Amino acid sequence: MVSQVRARSEQAKEARRAEILEQTRVLWAQARYEDLTLQAVAQRVGLTKAALYGYFPTKESLFLSLYETLLVRFLDELQRHLRLGGRHTPDSLSALMVTLLGEHADLTRLIPHLASLLERNISEARAHDHKHWVLARLGPVSTSLEAALPGLPSGGGVGLLTYTQALVAGLYPMSDPAPAVGAALQDPALSALCVRLDTALPTALRALYTGLSITGPGTAGT
């Protein structure tokens, strides 16, 4: 009887945690990271800020959990496409990645904050759990990538996904500059420094995937 009560309590807690993450996602779609406060999240879900701390003690921990939630959705969708799409070339794989990243814009916007902010204020235990969780989630998709992209070596799928995230982390902020920088880049003389994600990301991913697959059967020994 006691265990049943505890189970219901735990289920209720998990349901509330999921609701907090979903409402954070809604707010995140409308605001920059620096402008979104825990107070705003608490008000959105009808909690006091102190009660919210019982689920997520810091803003970083909240958004790290949101990142994990969004990453699962992205990887599930990528896995579905890989299972249906057969073999890929660097061009077709980069096109698929760009399309999915566009459809999962909440994750794309959050990726640049991962290493610079979200992982900076967590415990060693949380970091250990998070990284092992990521590795486990990447595993199945990595295997599918290695089957889909000829020349990608065994184990290379994790690297491909990691480098893809690194490119997004670097290119997205450059394509969404601060207002003063954006105004400065309106100068035609600075056009070479302007970065547009819709053109820069496909080019960068295509080059990355080509480089990772150059040891394929057609190039072995060259």
Write out key terms for the chains shown.
222 residues; globular; Homeodomain-like_sf; TetR/AcrR family transcriptional regulator; HTH_TetR; transcription; DNA-binding
Please outline the helices and strands:
Elements: H1 2-28, H2 38-45, H3 49-53, H4 59-85, H5 90-103, H6 105-110, H7 114-118, H8 124-148, H9 156-175, H10 179-184, H11 197-212
Helix pairs in contact: 1-2, 1-4, 4-5, 4-8, 5-11, 8-9, 9-11
Q: How would a crystallographer describe the biggest sheet?
A: none
Residue stretches low in confidence (pLDDT < 50, at least 5 long) are 1-7, 216-222
Strand content: under 5%
Query: How many helical stretches?
Result: 11
Which term fits the overall shape? globular
Order of SSEs: HHHHHHHHHHH
In angstroms, what separates the terminal alpha carbons?
70 Å
Number of strands: 0
Summed over residues and divided by their number, the pLDDT gives a mean of 91
Radius of gyration: 20 Å
Helix content: over 70%
Could you say which structural class the secondary elements and strand pairing correspond to?
A: mainly alpha
